[in-house]
Amino acid sequence: MNTLRPLPLLSRLGFGARTIAGVRHASTDATPAPTTPSAIPVPVPAVSGAPKQGKERRPRSIPPPGHGERLWVHNHITADLIVYSLTPEMKSTKAFRQFAYTGKKLVPAKLRKDYWRPMAVVEFAEGKGEVGRSVFQKLRELKKRHLLEWEDEALLNMSKRERGKALNDQRGIAVADIAHVLAGRGKGNKVVVSEEDEKKAKKGRGNHKDGEVPLDGVVEVKKDQDAAEKVKLHQATVYWANEQDKYFAQEWTENVIHVVGLPEKGTDKGEDAVEPAASETEAAAEAPKAEAD
């Protein structure tokens, strides 16, 4: 017997087929009918983040309620850089868009919370988030122009290092820009009350006579110092961490109210502001005296 002879394939001995002399023939045995298993319901897990039934999603083009009614101004305590934000906490992805390259190692590589503090908070009336977003856009535009358009010829005579530090010193310029924008200056500035706002106010108050319809949070201000023409501006409240910062601006219009102390995080509008620390107030009061000496 040859022990090296290969064994027959198992497939030839399979059910339903017979082989005779190497030829495959059909089997005469009845093949069982295939049975279909009964359908078993399988629970589908809920997808996290999927919208719930019966609850409509807010379109991304529509801002959430209250968005833009408050504007935060953050200040770098050593370089005096300024970052504008519509939220109490800065977001690095949005904050770095407001920086421009002013020199080697003059722009922070990351946002450290111990180097930044809120300098001021600009607040508008309830439902005036559109006005706040317009002010936010104007302030960012002015800041970018200060960094890229050098009106002062003295900057051209400085070294690269000195010029970079001078461009980073944005604290006083930011206060002047806030006063400029809140005065209604600039094309498309929504601080100026439009005719549509006046018409909406008149429709909502039909009991008043024409010309006597008051608008909430609106102050009538002269367009220019010498001109007799007046412009209606939306009212704004500026909370200062240091009261002396507001004197960086030459003048403020009558529609701006100044409050010493910043509002606490999470507090509603109109609540009492937090008084600044005594050491900060004393240092601010001594600063003008030192300059005078």
Automatic annotation (TrEMBL):
Q: Name one GO cellular component term.
A: ribosome
- Name its cellular compartments: Mitochondrion
InterPro entries according to UniProt = Ribosomal_mL67
Q: Which UniProt keywords apply?
A: Mitochondrion, Ribonucleoprotein, Ribosomal protein, Transcription, Transcription regulation
Coiled-coil spans are none
Give positions of region: Disordered.
Answer: 27-69, 194-213, 263-293
- Low complexity bias spans: 28-51, 275-287
Similarity annotation? Belongs to the mitochondrion-specific ribosomal protein mL67 family.
Q: What is this protein's name?
A: Large ribosomal subunit protein mL67
**Native species:** Chaetomium strumarium
